[in-house]
Design goal:
Helices cover 24% and strands 32% of the residues. By secondary structure, the protein is an alpha+beta fold. It has 3 domains: 281 residues, TIM Barrel; 93 residues, Sandwich (Immunoglobulin-like), CATH 2.60.40.1180; 95 residues, Sandwich (Immunoglobulin-like), CATH 2.60.40. Strand 4 and strand 5 form a beta hairpin. The longest helix is centred in the first third of the chain and has 18 residues. The mean pLDDT is 94.
Length: 474
């Protein structure tokens, strides 16, 4: 269902085989015959290579969870080399802990673990248990093979050995999140790092995603990708407004998206929300903070700059259980230039609603625990695009070309559409112009109301849509 639902929306979709491939319970004791090199036969009777192969046949990228610093049962290498073991202490993820300071661990054990993962056919890796591993190593540091090196240095050497084994192109996620230490100790070796705890309810989302993003976002898309954990949208934990808030925050921050629901349990509205943030945009918002902490909202300001224009996409997330009434100053709050009486067209993405032309002041009303996503576009003297429907970034991902021919009064562009899904361009038409005609292959509908023109394309195939809109000067 993952491929059939989102395959047309992204070139790369991953399917993740989680920790249960070699765990049956959270007691860390493992089960006989199951270890880092041997999956549970009752769950995977044909082995993990067969699983990875089947995932790829679905057009997905196979990803494997691994806890390489420990094991539930002593695997064959640990039995052969008891000197590689640091401690026997049951934790949620395992009971036998390797000694990261031992040269045999770095030179032989870790390469063997990660070569096995590649041999099975997995193309990306989630490496878990780092917070617990740090605690164990600190507690038993005196028993290190080389106690002269710190826990951090020893653990870093282990990660470097894994990276050398898998190469630079394999996406490797560190499952950390408890402290700054376990997130950053090897951030130059990992592709991404989980930056918070498990997220299910609304309070989890605030504490383990939003607040953690505030803390680690300065490194996002620079040193590594900040992973805010799984995106849970189902009604058990969210109203529609809360689901919209989670999606908006992840989409405008450009956070990796791990779907935390059985897709069959999500209604059409929640599925459609996910489509608006897939693919993950390669972005780094210029301003992500609660402008007035304690007033119960989060503001994400994404500045988009392309060859043919610039605009801002602003998310205002109401964290409270009551209505939010917020006055926003474009200059001081959003760093948007309002000098020389510059005005802006403002469009509400989720409501698909024009909010008018504004100078420096803008009033926004946001329902409890919901989010408003506004596209704020500098006003020109000719017809212009002020919103698109494909992606929450409203043109950043789907508009590749835009040109206004002043002599002929023609606005031409090229957009990326998805087969079977209506792609909407929303335009602002200033006084002195009226829409005359359009040129585009395929089915097109348009509707005009006042100064707003909505053009709906219905592409037969996914890919580029070349279009021209003709206007008449009044």
């Amino acid at each position: 269902m993952l491929s059939s639902t989102f395959g047309k929306y992204a070139e790369k979709l991953c399917f993740w085989v989680d920790w249960e491939w070699n765990h049956q319970a959270f007691d860390g004791l493992g089960q006989e015959g199951v270890d880092t090199f041997t999956p549970r036969k009752e769950a995977y009777p044909n082995g993990l290579a067969s699983v990875a192969e089947q995932i790829e046949k679905l057009g997905l990228i196979p990803v494997l969870w691994i806890g390489a610093t420990n094991d539930g049962q002593q695997n064959h290498l640990l039995k052969q080399h008891p000197e590689w073991l640091l401690a026997h202490k049951p934790e949620w993820c395992g009971q036998w802990w390797i000694d990261p300071s031992h040269p045999g661990i770095v030179a032989e054990y870790i390469p063997a673990v990660f070569k096995q993962i590649l041999k099975w056919g997995f193309k990306a890796i989630k490496w878990d248990c780092f917070p617990t591993a740090f605690t164990i190593c600190d507690s038993f540091h005196s028993k290190f093979h080389n106690p002269d090196i710190s826990t951090d240095t020893a653990m870093r050497n282990v990660v470097k050995a894994a990276r050398k084994t898998v190469g630079t192109d394999v996406y490797m996620l560190s499952c950390s999140g408890n402290t700054e230490r376990d997130v950053t100790f090897a951030m130059d070796q990992f592709s991404a790092a989980r930056i918070g705890g498990d997220i299910f309810g609304w309070s989890d989302f605030i504490a383990n995603s939003i607040e953690r993003v505030f803390l680690f976002y300065l490194w996002h898309n620079i040193a590594f990708y900040a992973d805010g954990d799984n995106l849970v949208l189902r009604s058990e934990f969210n109203s529609l407004g809360q689901a919209r808030s989670r999606v908006s925050f992840y989409g405008l921050a450009g956070l990796p998206v791990t779907i935390g629901d059985n897709l069959a349990d999500l209604d059409e509205a929640r599925i459609d929300m996910l489509k608006r943030i897939i693919p993950v945009a390669d972005i780094h918002p210029m301003d992500i903070q609660q402008k007035r902490r304690g007033n119960g909202y989060v503001l994400v300001n994404l500045a988009v700059c392309k060859e043919f224009g610039n605009w801002n996409v602003v998310g205002i997330l109401n964290t409270k259980e009551e209505m939010l009434e917020l006055n926003v100053r474009l200059e001081s709050d959003l760093h948007i230039d309002t000098h020389n009486v510059q005005c802006y067209a403002v469009y509400d993405f989720w409501k698909d609603e024009f909010m008018g032309i504004h100078g420096d002041a803008l009033h926004v009303s946001v329902a409890p625990m919901d989010t408003a996503v506004l596209c704020i576009t500098p006003l020109t003297s000719h017809p212009q695009v002020i919103s698109t429907s494909r992606h929450i970034t409203q043109g950043a991902c789907d508009l590749s070309y835009l040109y206004w021919d002043a002599a002929a009064n023609i606005l031409s562009g090229r957009s990326t559409g998805v087969e079977g899904e209506v792609y909407r361009l929303t335009l602002y038409i200033p006084e002195g112009y009226e829409f005359a005609n359009l040129d585009c292959n395929g089915k097109v509908k348009f509707a005009s109301e006042g100064c707003i023109l909505k053009v709906d394309f219905n592409p037969v195939n996914s890919g580029d849509i070349a279009w021209k809109l003709y206007f008449k000067a009044k």
